[in-house]
Design brief:
Blueprint lengths: L1 H24 L8 H13 L3 E6 L3 E7 L7 E7 L26 H17 L7 E7 L8 H7 L10 E12 L3 E3 L2 E4 L2 E9 L3 E2 L9 H19 L6 E9 L6 E2 L2 E10 L2 H21 L3 E10 L2 E3 L1 H15 L4 E3 L10 H6 L2 E9 L19 H18 L1
Parallel strand pairs: 3-4, 3-5, 5-16, 6-15
Antiparallel strand pairs: 1-2, 2-4, 6-16, 7-14, 8-12, 8-13, 9-11, 10-12
Helix pairs in contact: 1-3, 1-9, 3-9, 5-6, 7-9
Length: 393
């Protein structure tokens, strides 16, 4: 079966690359992937793969049923949205939609899934069970398309027993993949703070309530909540990346706005920390004569890879690619809405190497020069197909 899959991966490689180039040239923002959805549906129809569109408007769920389809159901996920970035590229498949770019590799995830669909569909008489393919919108913005797909029962009827996802990874050279069992990616909440005081002349601070000073104290105090209250064994990060106080050298502004992110790996501590931060900011503002509106937008939960499922995928990768091509991954404080699936069922979210450093293909995710070595698609479609078939045994 391994050799058969490698032959099929080679057979479909060029077609998959052409799909990736089309998707890269025609990116669409989160929850607005209407043409992308049409393109996916056209592919599924042409390959006689049953599907149901309309999940969260642009999402699609397809099914490939083998012999005895109820025996086991495995879900695969590909996200389909792009980012609001102006691409800097001279490639013929550069984005045609000004200000929108597939800078996170979702075009690779989707086109790769096309290849997996073709391989599994041609082998459906040789495996038992059902493969559920989830083409998911809106990974890049809250509330995350994964949470909405779950609410609309995309993983039901038939009910998936586990789910697998992959993500491009510029830190690995093409042909390599990475896995991590257990906790992998952090939760991510967005913090929006508005500090209000009394503006006035900078030479007369006694006549004002200094919002700049107040905001500074709040930022320092909130950092202490994380450093002094978090269990040292639980990674936690609090970062404020935006401060707006429209004063001047001699003007104290009426209000200051602060934006930040809080990330961790424990849901109980996550909830407790947010309560503590809100209380601290509001009390400190009041004590200094001002007020504070502390708003938290709950983001993605932390992503955890099921030990058994991930070990099986890891073993499959060792067998398919060779142990020298499979690497352990470090814990990451970045977030991913695949985490919602990982909170629902056994999951495996692994990384696909896409860099070719000698050729200058190694830009980071979410950058305007991001690209991939297309050989990664040969690896991805073969490996995911092999993992699925092993898990269906």
């Amino acid at each position: 079966m391994k050799e058969k899959i490698k032959v099929l991966a080679d057979k479909h490689f060029e077609e998959v690359v052409s799909h990736r180039k089309y998707l890269h040239a025609n990116p669409e923002l989160s929850f607005k992937e209407f043409k992308t959805s049409e393109y996916i549906q056209k592919f599924l129809s042409e390959n006689n793969i049953e599907f149901k569109p309309g999940y969260v408007k642009t999402g699609i769920v397809a099914h490939i049923r083998g012999r005895n389809p109820d025996k086991k159901v495995i879900a695969l996920r590909a996200d389909i949205d792009a980012l609001p970035i102006i691409e800097k590229s001279d490639k013929d498949y550069k984005s045609k939609n000004e200000g929108v770019m597939h800078a996170c590799g979702h075009d690779v995830h989707t086109s790769s899934m096309f290849g997996v669909c073709k391989i599994l569909n041609s082998l459906k008489d040789e495996f038992e069970g059902t493969v559920k393919i989830v083409f998911q919108p809106g990974e890049e913005i809250l509330p995350g398309g994964a949470s909405l797909m779950i609410k609309e029962d995309a993983l039901k009827k038939p009910d998936a027993e586990l789910i697998i996802g992959q993500h491009v990874y510029p830190q690995l050279e093409v042909g390599n993949v990475g896995f991590r069992k257990g906790m992998y990616m952090a939760s991510a909440d967005e913090i929006y703070v508005t500090v209000k005081g009394k503006g006035g002349h900078g030479a007369l601070p006694n006549k004002c309530v200094d919002t700049i000073l107040l905001a500074s104290h709040i930022i320092v105090a909130l950092q202490q909540i994380v450093s002094r209250n978090a269990d040292p064994t639980i990674p936690s990060v609090l970062t404020f990346g935006n401060i707006e106080g429209y004063g001047a050298t001699n003007i104290i502004p009426e209000e200051v706005k602060i934006k930040g992110t809080f990330r961790t790996f424990d849901e109980e501590w996550r909830a407790d920390a947010k309560k503590k931060m809100k209380k601290m900011a509001e009390m400190l503002a009041e004590a200094m004569g001002g007020s504070c509106n502390f708003d938290i937008h709950d983001g993605y939960p932390f992503l955890t890879n099921d030990e058994t499922t991930t070990q099986l995928a890891w073993d499959s990768a060792n067998d398919f690619l060779g142990e020298d091509k499979v690497h352990p991954l470090d814990l990451r404080m970045t977030s991913e809405d695949f985490a919602y699936y990982s909170q629902e069922m056994p999951s495996c979210f692994y990384r696909l190497g896409i860099a070719n450093t000698p050729e200058g293909i190694n830009s980071g995710l979410h950058t305007n020069t991001f690209d991939v070595d297309h050989e990664a698609l040969r690896t991805s479609i073969g490996l995911m197909s092999y993992i699925v078939l092993n898990m269906l045994k």
